[in-house]
């Protein structure tokens, strides 16, 4: 029986695609805009670096949770001490909450661009708040359901999304311009490109928001085999992500000029929406925004759940002595949901730069989280195995 569990099964595949869906969102849709500004070869190095960074950090985060037991990350973090636990929870929130805000802006801009450029409806240009409120309310309403329902919805969206992204990447091949490959950046420019693009790269592969739920599910199903199955599933998911994300990024950057990336950034829209507005292909014009909408939606589910979990952990740690036995958890859930709902709508209405969010807030926080939690995960596992 234990030998059968070593093999990949439907349960494992479902979780692999759920993590894939959490990662495929605004990150992959904005990474080409940031990476393309610096040329082809820095992106090649990024592709090489991204695999160990993504695999080891997310595996360590899962170990950090399931080495302690069947608890979410905010409870597991407190096992390292009250202050360290609070710091980890704060970093976790600071990494995920800005991403939720960025997704609110991204989905609003994607829908608005589609209405204006593809449907010729200019109503929402002057009624942005109405559009943002309805879109974000719809996404948060879905999150009211339990994690099983959300996982099934995300899975239903991920399969066609992955196929469409692959087809779109292949479709762009005839538009590739090989001149970019011959351009070699200076030594200083090369490493500057890596440093400034790293936050967006980390963001593009990040699916840490769903890792806590994933680790608990693995603990519940596999028990003593949890570390083996965690490594197996995360490794396969990382390989899948690397192929889809980097193939998509290379296809995008090889068929655009540097000025195109500046225009896309200025318009604050995903790369697919930019292609929809500029390629002149009616299929891409309608399919591009739809794919962007699905990608942001699937990723929003995981990040919203993680941000809410982290915020609740902070509130419980601050205001209650016994964080596991409070009678006010439902009230805390309601107030946190209202806070997230209102703040995401307000930020979406004001339309700040999405890449600015990633570069200044979410990306750097995720980068530090991954480095710190990789260490904590290995330490927690070592301590757990000694016991």
Automatic annotation (TrEMBL):
The keyword Cell membrane applies. The keyword Magnesium does not apply. It is a multi-pass membrane protein. InterPro entries: Amino_acid_transport_2. It is found in: Cell inner membrane. GO terms for cellular component: plasma membrane. The chain crosses the membrane at residues 12-33, 39-56, 84-107, 127-145, 157-176, 188-212, 233-256, 283-305, 332-350. One of its GO terms (biological process) is amino acid transmembrane transport. Keywords: Cell inner membrane, Cell membrane, Membrane, Transmembrane, Transmembrane helix, Transport. It comes from the Bacteria. Its main location: membrane. PANTHER family: SERINE TRANSPORTER, SERINE TRANSPORTER SDAC. This is Serine transporter. It comes from Helicobacter bizzozeronii (strain CIII-1).
